[in-house]
Amino acid sequence: MGIVSPGFQGRPRSAEPALPPGQYLTQDFPVLSAGPTPKVPLDTWEFVITAETGAEYRWSWDELMALPQETPTVDIHCVTRWSKRDTTWQGVSLDTLLDGVDTGAHYVQAHSYGGYTTNLPLDDLRGGRAWVAHTFEGAPLPAEHGGPARLLVPHLYFWKSAKWVRGIRLTPTDEPGFWETAGYHDYGDPWREQRYQGD
User: Fold this and answer.
1) Measured between alpha carbons, how far is 177 from 181 in angstroms, rounded to an integer?
2) Which residues form a coiled coil (predicted)?
């Protein structure tokens, strides 16, 4: 049996939960984009799920807003090493949007107004883990942060949460998107520090 000196408490524990490796905490919300910010009028905005068969499921802005809304509070982690805690969003769960979509696909490629794409396993959009978000901290999502709506997939690095999202295409095989073809990791788990291919 080991000997412990009276009053020994060990290392003090932080009240803050741990950040993913290599990340630092910020109170700001840095703006990072691969190109110019598109301006998307709400009367022409739509979200489209395209199945691997070519079948399409479409929602206008008004139709999206009429769906059940959720208000997740999540931490977000950018591949450029900042993390932001307890961000509050409002949007529609991908579980709601995928309900009734007939698919045998295992992957999706998200598409944005402006041409941006990113790939994800379909399972990462299910189970209450992903939303089409239109509100941030109680206000309409600003265009520089992906408004009018962006994908929100907070358990992956934030480049997977495509700004200005206009739809997802369901695919039987994994098809890399914009940053993935430029050398970023195909999956992007911040807790495994999957920043670049080979990580």
Assistant:
1) 6
2) none
The two beta strands, 82-93 and 24-25, are parallel
pTM: 0.89
What's the mean per-residue pLDDT of the chain?
Answer: 91
Residue with tokens 């803050």: 16
DSSP secondary structure letters along 25-79: E-SS-----SS------TTT-EEEEE-TTS-EEEEEHHHHHHS--B--EEEEE-T
* Cis-peptide into 148, omega within 30 deg: yes
d(CA 141, CA 33): 15
Domain boundaries, the chain: 46-192
Torsion of CA 63, 176, 77, 136, to 10 degrees: -20
Rounded to the nearest angstrom, the gap between the alpha carbon of residue 124 and the centroid of all alpha carbons in its chain is: 10
Question: Residue 76 is inside which H or E element, if any?
Answer: strand 73-77
Amino acid type, 98: L
The CATH class, in words, for 46-192 is alpha beta
For the residues of 102-131, what is the DSSP string, one character each? Answer: ----SEEEEEETTS-EEEEEGGGGSSS--E
Q: Is 29 exposed, middle or buried (0-12, 13-18, 19+ CB in 10 A)?
A: middle
Amino acid code (one letter) for 29:
F
